[in-house]
């Protein structure tokens, strides 16, 4: 089985837009659910609804893959699962290391969805000597002193950082120096990486802050209805929401 060090996804060289690449996993998740129910074909409208996009955007995305469906029949579910999996590089084995085995790192290690989606957790790494040798999800934790050797021995090109913010950049630098070219960052900090290294950041606090912003907006809109205070409420709401430029709140979440 091939490993991540010998292959790089071809999406960029083939001119597939990054926005389309970001939606492919959504399509794959919806298609996998259909496949598990033995659904043979699906229309663009049905698949778009399941993936949470509009059908015109879906058809445009699939055109980059060379998949246009059949009029009156739709898309072949199994073929699309294979086609998108191949485009995402999921038809091969991608060894992954997780650095930082605190609560979050341990939860990631125990996540059962990695293996079924083409990712193999090759090693768990932590700087705490007390954790060394302890099994998490059946995998013994290794010390960060062995990080470079682990990456080289397992042909790792994808690293997951789940350390505290203060340690994340140093860990990132070591991963990159050892040959890792893609990083999934759960640490609450922005990482600096050289050209050729891809970083995806997952920050749950930011996502919650965005949801809080929308909840505040919805609460303001409800208060502005006739039952919620009438024109006076509208005036207060507009005044509170307008910032120096007129539309954006003056204070936004950091």
**Major sheet details:** 7 strands, mixed
SSE string, helix = H, strand = E? HEHHEHEHHEEEHEHEEHH
Q: What are the low-pLDDT stretches, counting only 5+ consecutive residues below 50?
A: 1-13, 230-254
Mean pLDDT: 84
Give me the side-by-side strand order of the main sheet.
Answer: 5-6-4-3-7-8-9
Number of strands: 9
Strand content range: 5-15%
Helix content: 40-55%
Q: Sum up the overall morphology in one term.
A: globular
Structural class assignment: alpha/beta
C-alpha-based Rg, rounded: 23 Å
Count of runs of 4 or more consecutive helical residues: 10
Distance between the termini: 44 Å
Structure notes:
The model is unreliable at 1-13 and 230-254 (pLDDT under 50). The chain is of the alpha/beta class and 254 residues long. Helix 1 packs across helix 2 (44-51), helix 2 (44-51) packs across helix 3 and helix 7 (147-154) packs across helix 8 (165-178). It contains ten helices and nine strands. The strands form two sheets. Strands 5-6-4-3-7-8-9 form a seven-stranded mixed β-sheet, sandwiched between helices. The protein has a two-stranded antiparallel sheet with strand order 1-2.
Provide a concise account of the structure shown:
With 254 residues, the protein is of the alpha/beta class.
What keyword list fits this structure?
254 residues; two-stranded antiparallel sheet; 9 strands
Task: Outline the fold blueprint.
Layout: H1 18-36, E1 41-42, H2 44-51, H3 55-64, E2 75-76, H4 77-87, E3 94-99, H5 103-109, H6 113-116, E4 119-126, E5 135-136, E6 139-143, H7 147-154, E7 158-161, H8 165-178, E8 182-185, E9 198-201, H9 204-223, H10 230-241
Parallel strand pairs: 3-4, 3-7, 4-6, 7-8, 8-9
Antiparallel strand pairs: 1-2, 5-6
């Amino acid at each position: 089985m091939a490993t991540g060090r010998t292959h790089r996804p071809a999406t960029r060289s083939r001119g597939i837009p990054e926005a389309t690449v970001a939606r492919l996993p959504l399509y794959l998740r919806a298609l996998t659910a259909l496949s598990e129910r033995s659904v043979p074909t699906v229309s663009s409208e049905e698949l778009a609804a399941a993936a949470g996009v509009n059908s015109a955007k879906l058809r445009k995305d699939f055109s980059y893959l060379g998949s246009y469906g059949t009029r009156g029949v739709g898309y072949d579910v199994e073929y699309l699962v294979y086609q998108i999996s191949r485009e995402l590089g999921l038809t091969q084995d991608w060894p992954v290391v997780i650095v930082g085995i605190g609560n979050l790192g341990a939860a990631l290690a125990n996540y059962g969805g990695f293996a079924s989606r083409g990712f193999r957790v090759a090693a768990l790494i932590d700087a705490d000597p007390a954790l060394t040798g302890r099994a998490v999800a059946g995998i013994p934790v290794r010390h960060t002193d062995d990080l470079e050797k682990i990456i080289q021995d397992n042909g790792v090109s994808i690293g997951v950082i789940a350390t505290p913010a203060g340690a994340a950049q140093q860990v990132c630098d070591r991963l990159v120096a050892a040959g890792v070219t893609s990083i999934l960052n759960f640490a609450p900090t922005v990482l600096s990486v050289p050209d050729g290294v891809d970083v995806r950041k997952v920050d749950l606090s930011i996502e919650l802050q965005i949801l809080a912003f929308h909840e505040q907006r919805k609460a303001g809109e409800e208060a502005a209805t006739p039952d919620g205070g009438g024109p006076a409420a509208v005036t207060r709401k507009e005044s509170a929401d307008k910032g120096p430029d007129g539309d954006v709140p003056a204070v936004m979440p950091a």
